[in-house]
């Protein structure tokens, strides 16, 4: 139901009171009203629910409402949601902010469908999350991929040198936009101000998937935000590095190169007409927490973490915690990238070892694992992580090269930095074409018919419509031998792949 009440909050705010959480407060007022719910959801504000689970869910069910009188409508916000989004826009430096209840995934899908039509060209960094590829597939776009740079120590992908992107724009002046990921999953960030200026000279928007940088730009101790450096449209996973609930994210727009009306229309197609109001409210209070307390806590946390990281690195014999390189401009101090100095253990082995010590890492790859700290970490939690690192370091000191299989560990995920390439068959056409399964060793030279996605971070190694090379097959086998997890392959053993007929 659409709200019919008189607006209590000025949706054209000239001043911003970040101690307020208008959407959360509206839900609390709804809960206090004790009106008898004769509308969805079916649990009726918690009156009807599984008794065994009620103790866990009871605290949130009273806020789990729908577009009733006095609440507001996500798809046509004029009241509390509008005010909450306005406060978020001010906090993050946007002209307008959309709340998302489908994670950054729905944000990326909406961007692709808003900016691209069938056959449109768009310049896309190749190490993007799978949701970007899915969005381009749905839009029928024809992406031109640019191979990322590879950081020399960690061997992880990051934004290609800006000169390569500028050259690509000279060769393809008809692209609709440039789309990059910054920071990468590991927190490595490039200064994108020059790239933003280049895009604007070409009169096209710069899109930034900033899923792991929602806290960027909030204090000087972390890298600057994409919006502050000139990006036109930015997606942030507010649940990843800030305090919103899982799936709660934001899409920020700045400037006039992107149509907010178009984005709102597409989000109306992609987001549920029954969005989760607890998720939406968690965005509201995550913004309030960040501005009123989180910024000062973030400064303190960074100081503590850096002191511990530097001191710990001096003690470690077998492990090391990455501390930046000349190849990047800034990195996220809330992320510790840990690896073996002599590579006797893979990242996948480290993941299991740390799990046994009571620490679950955010991501692992052939070389590294990543620990992700919050914006407010207590000393006792940092102490536990440090103790686990020291314990694993002592264990690894006794390891030798023979303990693990060290044979040809290199899994090549991307071609040479700055290289441009297109799909052999468009993503959309490949998705709809007939396909068949073949043994993986017989797939070389054929056109791939499915996504092959090591996860996390969810960057496709192969996409539908892309030619399968011997390097692809070698990398798949290498990753499997190391213990990598692949998300939703057609054959869980990856002994077979779908190819286009």
Short structural description:
The protein has 501 residues and is of the alpha+beta class. The protein has 3 domains: 199 residues, Type I PLP-dependent aspartate aminotransferase-like (Major domain) (Aspartate Aminotransferase, domain 2, 3-Layer(aba) Sandwich), CATH 3.40.640.10; 107 residues, Aspartate Aminotransferase, domain 1 (Alpha-Beta Complex); 78 residues, Orn/Lys/Arg decarboxylase, C-terminal domain (Ornithine Decarboxylase, Chain A, domain 4, Alpha-Beta Complex), CATH 3.90.100. 36% of the residues lie in helices and 14% in strands.
Structural domains: how many:
3
Which CATH class of the largest domain applies here? Alpha Beta
Indicate the proportion of strand residues. Answer: 5-15%
- What does the main sheet amount to? 8 strands, mixed
What is the averaged pLDDT score? 93
Fill in the CATH topology of the largest domain.
Aspartate Aminotransferase, domain 2
Low-confidence stretches: 1-12, 402-407
Second-tier CATH architecture of the largest domain: 3-Layer(aba) Sandwich
Distance between the termini: 49 Å
Number of helical regions: 14
Helix-strand makeup class: alpha+beta
Given the C-alpha coordinates, what overall shape results?
Answer: globular
Computed over alpha carbons, the radius of gyration is 24 Å
CATH superfamily of the largest domain: Type I PLP-dependent aspartate aminotransferase-like (Major domain)
Give the helix level as a range of percent: 25-40%
Q: Strand order across the biggest sheet?
A: 1-10-9-8-6-2-3-16
Record field, number of beta strands: 18
């Amino acid at each position: 139901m659409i709200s019919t009440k008189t607006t209590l909050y000025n949706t054209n705010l000239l001043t911003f009171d970040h101690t307020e959480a208008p959407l959360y407060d509206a839900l609390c007022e709804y809960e206090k009203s004790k009106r008898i719910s004769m509308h969805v959801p079916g649990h009726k504000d918690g009156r009807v629910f599984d008794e065994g689970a009620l103790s866990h869910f009871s605290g949130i069910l009273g806020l789990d409402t729908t577009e009733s009188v006095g609440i507001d409508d996500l798809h046509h916000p004029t009241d509390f949601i509008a005010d909450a989004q306005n406060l978020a826009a001010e906090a993050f430096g946007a002209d307008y902010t959309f709340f998302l209840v489908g994670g950054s995934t729905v944000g990326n899908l909406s961007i692709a469908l808003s900016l691209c039509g069938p056959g449109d060209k768009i310049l896309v960094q190749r190490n993007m999350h799978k949701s970007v590829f899915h969005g381009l597939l749905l839009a029928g776009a024809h992406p031109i991929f640019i191979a990322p740079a590879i950081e020399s120590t960690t061997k992880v992908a990051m934004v290609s040198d800006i000169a390569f992107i500028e050259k690509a724009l000279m060769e393809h002046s008809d692209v609709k936009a440039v789309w990059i990921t910054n920071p990468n999953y590991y927190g490595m960030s490039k200064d994108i101000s020059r790239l933003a200026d280049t895009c604007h000279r070409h009169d096209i928007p710069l899109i930034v998937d900033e899923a792991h940088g929602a806290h960027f730009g909030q204090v000087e101790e972390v890298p600057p935000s994409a919006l502050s450096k000139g990006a036109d449209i930015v997606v942030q996973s507010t649940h990843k590095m800030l305090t919103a609930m899982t799936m709660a994210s934001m899409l920020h727009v700045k400037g006039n190169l992107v149509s907010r009306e178009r984005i709102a229309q597409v989000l109306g197609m992609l987001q549920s007409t029954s969005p989760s109001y607890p998720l939406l409210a968690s965005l509201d209070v995550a913004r309030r927490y960040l501005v009123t307390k989180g910024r000062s806590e973030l400064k303190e946390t960074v100081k503590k973490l850096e002191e511990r990281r530097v001191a710990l690195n001096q003690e470690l014999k077998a492990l090391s915690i990455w501390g930046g390189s000349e190849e990047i401009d800034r990195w996220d101090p809330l992320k510790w990238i840990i690896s073996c100095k002599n590579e006797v253990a893979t990242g996948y082995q480290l993941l299991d070892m740390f799990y046994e010590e009571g620490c679950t890492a955010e991501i692992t790859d052939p070389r590294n694992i990543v620990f992700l700290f919050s914006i407010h970490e207590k000393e006792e939690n940092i102490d536990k992580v440090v103790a686990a690192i020291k314990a694993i370091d002592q264990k690894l000191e006794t390891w030798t090269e023979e303990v693990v299989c060290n044979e040809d560990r290199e899994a090549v995920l991307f071609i040479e930095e700055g290289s441009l390439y297109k799909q052999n068959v468009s993503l959309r056409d490949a998705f709809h074409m007939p396909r068949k399964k073949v043994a993986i060793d017989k797939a070389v030279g054929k056109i791939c018919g499915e996504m092959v996605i090591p996860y996390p971070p969810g960057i496709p190694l192969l996409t539908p419509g892309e030619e399968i090379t011997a390097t692809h097959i070698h990398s798949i086998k290498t990753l499997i031998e190391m213990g990598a997890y692949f998300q939703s392959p057609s054959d869980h053993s990856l002994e077979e792949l779908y190819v286009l007929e």
